[in-house]
Amino acid sequence: RSRNHGSAALAFGNGRLYLAWAGKKKQYLHIATLVVSAAGAVSMSTDQKLDVRCKKNTGPALAFGNNRLFLAWVGRGKEKLNVRSFDVSTSGALTQRSDVRLQRRAKKNAGPALAYGMNVLALAWVKRNK
After folding, report:
1. Disulfide engineering: 72 pairs with which of 10, 45, 53, 61, CB 3.0-4.6 Å?
2. Considering Cα of 29, then 76, then 112, then 122, what sign does the dihedral take?
3. Burial (Cβ within 10 Å: 0-12, 13-18, ≥19) of residue 87
4. pLDDT average, residue stretch 66-71
5. Average pLDDT over residues 101-105
6. How many CA atoms lie within 13 A of 91 on its CB side?
7. According to the model, what pLDDT value does residue 130 have?
8. How many CB atoms lie within 10 A of CB 86?
């Protein structure tokens, strides 16, 4: 359960549902892998706590494409945007592929948005006023 008052994020790929959220104490990001059965039942297969934290009152964004899971968040401190990608194995296991910290600042209390299509990852955010 998240208590940072930010939102959670969902992405679907390769028959699995991925859920990302910020934890309730220090806003460390988590990614859970959920398995959806043919009957529609959902069960959690993994819950991975990451080594990064997001800005309070914001949430992460997720997108899936080309056997990769993409995660974006607003970092703590100077509200810089971050994007991390994971390779997804056939079993659903996540292996970190890349980590990028953009030199763009997001508005406080506004998380990013992600979308993937046609081999393009799109990132949107609300720009922080100076």
Report:
1. 61
2. negative
3. middle
4. 96
5. 79
6. 5
7. 63
8. 21
